[in-house]
Design brief:
Blueprint: E1 7-9, H1 11-20, E2 25-28, H2 32-37, E3 43-44, E4 63-66, H3 71-84, E5 89-92, H4 95-102
Amino acid sequence: MDRNEVKGVNVQQLKEMMDNGDDYIIIDVREPDEIEICSIGGVNVPLGLIDKNTDKIPRDKPAIVLCRSGKRSYMAILFLQQEYEYENLFNLNGGIIAYARDIDKSITLY
């Protein structure tokens, strides 16, 4: 796999994984104050602290990485693939904004 290539899932695919009870983990790379506004669960590993928290990111199941719009999560995945050789990371395309717009309209956006 090219370590400069980021795999992605859209919010419909994530919702399907949730509904099916698939074995995966959500890694939310937003800041804690952003997560207080809205969250779809998962483990909070702020982007700036990601290199100190790789122990929270498993390698044995799909890890869906998300942020507000998909940009920070994309950067996080690139970093983890290049520096730590992760191969199980998927960017949530459009981030929590897309999730709120297309899946769960009750989520508060900011």
